[in-house]
Structures are given as C-alpha cells and as structure tokens.
Amino acid sequence: MTTAVKDMTHGGGGGGAALALNVMRLRTFIALFAVLIFFSLAAPNFLSTANLILMSKHVALNAFLAIGMTFVIITGGIDLSVGSIVGLCGMVAGGLILNGVNLDFLGFAYTLYFNVPEIILITLALGIFIGAINGVLITRLGVAPFIATLGTLYVMRGLALLLSQGRTFPNLVGNPEHGTEGFAIIGSGSFLGLPLTIWILIAVALAAAYIAKRTPVGRHIFAVGGNESAAALSGIRVDRVKMFVYMFSGFCAAIVGLIIASQLMAAHPATGETFELNAIAAAVLGGTSMSGGHGTIGGTIVGAFVIGILSDGLVMMGVSSFWQIVIKGLVIIAAVVVDQAQRRLQHRVVLRQMASET
C-alpha cells in the first residue's frame, strides 16, 4: 500500500488521492490538536497542571477499556459488557474489603478476609472469567458477539445490584485487624509526580502494543479480523484467539473497576454505565475498523485522549450533559464515515496502481 501511494504521487492525477489518504490516516492526531487548541482558548485554566493531571486520570479509565475493546473489534467482534464488568468488579472488591467472605462449615461460622493484593488478584481474575464467559458464548455456542455481550451486560449489572441490594459499599479504608488497609493507593497514589493510574496505563498499553506487534497471538488477532475463514484454513485456532481478546477485555475492565472504587473509596453498583460507548468511540476514532482486521493501540490511546479532553472541556465550558451525549454520538459517526471513506479511497488507489502495471 505504501508503494502504491508513493507511485501515485508521481503519477498523473494521483497526488490528490495520496494526500487525502495521508490526511485520513492522521485524522486522530488532527482531532486531538483541534480539541486542545479549541478548549485552551475557550475554557480558562484548561491547560493548567492540576487540570491536565485530572484529565489524564479520566482519560486513563477510558483508555483501559478502549485497549481491550480494540483487540475485540479487530477480530470483528464487539464487547458491550465492559461497563457492567467495571461495576461488578468494583462491588466485589468493595465487598471483600468491608465484609470478607462468610463461611459456614459444619456449624462453624467464620469470616475470611483477604489482604489488598489478594483482593486485586481476585478482582482481576473475575474480570478475566467474565471475559471467558463471553468467549464461550461466542465461540462454543455460536451466539453473535453483540447479543452475547448484551446479555452479559444485563447479567453482570444485576449481580452487582444483588451484592448489596442496590446499595453502595462505602468507606473502603479497610481494617488493620483484617489486613485490608491500603486500597486507596491504587486510585490516589503517585510515582515520580504522575498518578499511579497513569503508570498502570503505560504498562498495560506497552504490553498490548507488544502483543499486537511482536507476538504470534497479535498476528493471529489481525488475521482473524481480516478473513476468519482464511485464518482457520491457515491453521490459526480462531476460537482461542477470540477467547483471548474477550478475556483481555474483561481484564482491562476489572482494572477500571478497581481504580474507580479506589478513587472514590466506595463501590456503587451503577458504576460503569455507558462506559462501553466511550471505549468503542475511542477505538474507532483511533483508527480501529468496525469491520475488523485493522487497528493500533497507539491510535486507540490518542482516540481516548480526544474523547476524554472533549468530555472534560465541554464540562468546563458549562455545556449541558445532554448536548455532550449528542456531540459524542456525532464524533463516533464522523469517525466511522471517515474510516469507510479511507477504505474506499485505498481500494481505488490499489486498483489504479494495478491497472498502471498491466
């Protein structure tokens, strides 16, 4: 494709198409600079250090979900359950800190408490397990990803409500007698002047980028999204690849559940509602194709920054929350339209190049 574009720039009438393609490829960065410039001029103190740190923490939550969503969408799927996984995982972590696990064995009642590292591992394992459920529904039972994850969305949200009968788990400071102190550090801790949340995001993003670019699993993810039948015929275990991406998405959602509960020092069963929409928007805006086979982790991170900056900037300008929803919807539509236009233009460029060579 790169060769084709270069050749077209030297051929007659091809320069315009090549320029349009390059602009479309850079659309996420252009959008990022546009919103930064606009809000820096329209909103006072938008570029202040305190506001930038706060925005980065907001962006990180969306970015975690968007990274997992990117892998899912690249395979041609969708995961609508991530917001509910966030809520359930936060509730499980909060319940373990406050109440532990009540055991009744042979007439002996006992409450088992876990320390914070154990609670983190249990919560992350829960997110992976829910992702595995999505994977089984899609690969083994043949349920369409949209329907499977929509059903999981309702089930997990209902379980989150049942854990506390709809109430909040408050004041998650922990108890030194039970070894449950220190949960707050996940959401409010810092290292070298940056919030710990950002460092966790950097680690997850680098790991995801490495998987996508440097491992067989990453190549298989793109192959499945590009042509699932061809991938299966070439020996790729398609079902295992799909299981992996949904489990990874559940893992990312569990991280967000832990961070939000830690930041608020409370867990609410409604946490994470509509988070899946922001994750999809960030991935698509970052260049991930809804038809599968294309996407980058770096583009998704930039897309998450665009969505996050847009949301915070609109709040600082006092824009109604209703209009914020409308604007986000328009951004998603625009991103998909540009993606489809880019694919059509790439196809025409390739056809012209092939015709010129014959």
Automatic annotation (TrEMBL):
The keyword Transport applies. The keyword Cell membrane applies. It is found in: Cell membrane. It is a multi-pass membrane protein. The lineage of its organism: Bacteria, Pseudomonadati, Pseudomonadota, Alphaproteobacteria, Hyphomicrobiales. GO terms for molecular function: transmembrane transporter activity. Pfam families: BPD_transp_2. One of its GO terms (cellular component) is plasma membrane. This is Erythritol transport system permease protein. Keywords: Cell inner membrane, Cell membrane, Membrane, Transmembrane, Transmembrane helix, Transport. The chain crosses the membrane at residues 29-47, 59-78, 85-113, 119-137, 144-163, 183-212, 244-266, 321-338.
